[in-house]
Amino acid sequence: MPRHEFRPGRLIAGLTMLAVAVLFAGDAGDAWQTPWYAVIPTACGGLSLAGLASWAAYGVRKRRRDASQASADSSGVPASTSGSHAIR
């Protein structure tokens, strides 16, 4: 059993910020020239993608949770009182 849920949005957000840090580090170390306008779209695009992944993962978890609760739900009504056998 897993110790915690997989959160793909957090993974994407972390990788995005890591990419931004690499861009800044490469520019600071004179390995390459990073234009000033390249960082903001990278960060915004990555965080938007992380939000979309989190939203999709939430939908999957909610659907699974609802399905498991519906299968485990017991209304307490005996089976003999519902359906065609109840009409006598």
Architecture blueprint of SSEs:
Blueprint: H1 8-28, H2 39-72
Tell how many strands the DSSP assignment holds.
0
Report the sheet-strand fraction.
under 5%
Kindly report how far apart the N and C termini lie.
49 Å
* Helix content percent band: 55-70%
Q: Determine the number of helices (DSSP H or I, runs of at least 4 residues).
A: 2
Tertiary shape: elongated
What is the element string, with H for helices and E for strands? HH
Task: Outline the biggest β-sheet.
Answer: none
* Low-confidence runs: none
Arithmetic mean pLDDT = 85
Transmembrane segments: 35-58
Protein name: Integral membrane protein
Region (Disordered): 67-88
Organism: Streptomyces crystallinus
Folded structure, characterized:
It comes from Streptomyces crystallinus. Residues 67-88 are annotated as: Disordered. Keywords: Membrane, Transmembrane, Transmembrane helix. By secondary structure, the protein is mainly α. It has a domain at 17-64. It has helices at residues 8-28, 39-72. Helix 1 (8-28) runs antiparallel to helix 2 (39-72). The longest helix has 34 residues, at 39-72. The mean pLDDT is 85.
Tags for this entry?
single chain, 88 residues, mainly alpha
